């Protein structure tokens, strides 16, 4: 599966470490978005009917299909709450971020 | 139809961003072999923050006015390199399409170079702090059309971009909303199969600029279609086709009053918006109707 992935941030100490010609490697992430979250989606697997609407409508793509259920990537979830609203069976609810 | 791959991930768009959902789904439909260009705008500002590069496919930032021209260039370059099985995609905001980039878009359609141009419309220049664009609707307050006491915010109607583009005799054009994402994904798929230029205008609510809760993006994007303030249509083979005709329009004032950008409007202003909507629907009664 293709997906930009988290890598270690390298401290630039020499010019030669910078990309030449204005282009660089794509799909590289060096920081998470988890700190943006005020509310956190909590998933109830028993209620989930596997319609995958939350997966489809997540603007950040942090909900992935896992068999008939879903999995949430909390490293990049911003806690917008769209998944809670879109879920017809109430399998996702938002809790205050601890 | 769409892959499990994520080509737009870890970006810095605001929570609940409608535009980022449109980009994410478009790339999931088109796949890895997509040559993407974006001008200045939210979707480039949130994704090219070196070394944080949120696109997993080949992506390049163009000059603000140059999306259409760079798409032609990508196509020519790919042909010169002998590439096979790829898509050329341009994604620009409403300002980058309807105001600043409109001549490059017009030129692209005129050359009929194969490529898909997607305009994600959040109805103002959101990236630079909510200034009015040509696609800002009547009554919306922005920093350049502020709703001073007794004022109405933006007094100009929204440009009819879909029909401006279709009037070129383009191979394929469509309108969509992120609230009906399956419809949008199907239109991207269809656009990718067309020979020649195709254009999709997708309405994408912006919680920051519209004054709505981040969780409400999808509801609002559905409501704008259900109230008749936005319509889902396609243009191909020289004919307009309406995709969806609500039996009865939902309450416009509910849609207006839930958004911070419209909170200064009174009942008379809302009636003005309803009259303008009815005029639009009188005109598009001439489109081929759904199911016919």
Descriptive overview:
The complex is a heterodimer of chains A (98) and B (292). Chain A is elongated. Chain A has helices spanning 53-57, 82-86; strands at residues 5-6, 28-29, 39-43, 63-66, 69-72, 92-96. Chain A contains two helices and six strands. The model of chain A has no long low-confidence stretch (mean pLDDT 95). The longest helix of chain A has 5 residues, at 53-57. Chain A starts with a strand and ends with a strand. Chain A has one domain: Alpha-Beta Plaits (2-Layer Sandwich). In chain A, the strands form three sheets. In chain A, strands 1-2 form a two-stranded parallel sheet. In chain A, strands 3-6 form a two-stranded antiparallel sheet. A two-stranded antiparallel ribbon of chain A has the order 4-5. Chain B is α/β, with parallel strands linked by helices and 292 residues long. Chain B has a single domain (18-284), classed as 3-Layer(aba) Sandwich (Rossmann fold). Chain B has eleven helices and ten strands. Chain B has an eight-stranded mixed sheet, with helices on both faces. In chain B, helix 1 (18-30) packs across helix 7 (181-193). Chain B is globular. The model of chain B has no long low-confidence stretch (mean pLDDT 96). The interface between A and B is large, with 37 and 40 residues.
